[in-house]
TrEMBL record:
Signal peptide coordinates: none
Pfam family, one: KH_KhpA-B
The keyword 4Fe-4S is annotated on this UniProt entry: no
Name this polypeptide is given: RNA-binding protein KhpA
Entry keyword set: Cell shape, Cell wall biogenesis/degradation, Chaperone, Cytoplasm, RNA-binding
UniProt GO BP: cell wall organization; peptidoglycan biosynthetic process; regulation of cell shape
Listed GO MF terms: RNA binding
Protein family according to the UniProt entry: Belongs to the KhpA RNA-binding protein family.
Length: 76
């Protein structure tokens, strides 16, 4: 899942070498934290959050077979 997020985001940004994804797992939630170069933050979020919502939709679909909920947090 981490590689899926990294693959999607690196195609969108100008500084793909500064994309990092970390994973934190609890009993019922898997949280992925995405950090990018500050100039690329708007490209990942998109107008009115549309790109971020699309990325989250792909993650939810990919994790539908898991029992745990998946969350994506985009950090500055």
């Amino acid at each position: 899942m981490t590689e899926l997020i990294r693959t999607i985001v690196t195609a969108l940004v100008d500084h793909p070498d500064q994309v990092s994804v970390t994973k934190q797992e609890t009993d019922d939630v898997v949280l992925y934290q995405l950090t990018t170069h500050p100039d690329d933050l708007g490209k990942v979020i998109g107008k009115q959050g549309r790109i971020a919502k699309a990325i989250r939709t792909v993650l939810f679909a990919a994790a539908s077979h898991n029992e745990k909920r998946v969350q994506l947090e985009i950090l500055e």
